[in-house]
Design a protein that fits this description.
Elements (H helix, E strand, L loop, with lengths): L1 H16 L7 H14 L2 E4 L17 E4 L1 H7 L6
Antiparallel strand pairs: 1-2
């Protein structure tokens, strides 16, 4: 449980740092709500943290994926 808390905290901090002031937080929340309602996961098209490219936590960088497809994609840019 302690490790899970630590990694979840680090993830939240990373997302917070990747969210610009101009991001539409209402739209982002709506995307997450839609994902929960449909049993999908929210994926960043361009990963927030990657050796090759780093994206932002904005509505245009989010997509809904089934859990198995999100795991298959991992932390890679969808080409």
């Amino acid at each position: 449980p302690e490790i899970h808390r630590k990694t979840a905290s680090q993830r939240r901090r990373g997302v917070s740092h990747a969210t610009p002031a101009w991001a539409n937080k209402t739209a982002i929340k709506a995307i997450y709500a839609l994902a929960r309602a449909q049993g999908l996961e929210v994926d960043h098209v361009i990963p927030l943290k990657s050796p090759l490219v780093c994206g932002l936590h904005v509505e245009n960088n989010l997509q809904l994926l089934p859990p198995q497809e999100n795991r298959r994609k991992g932390n890679r840019h969808a080409a």
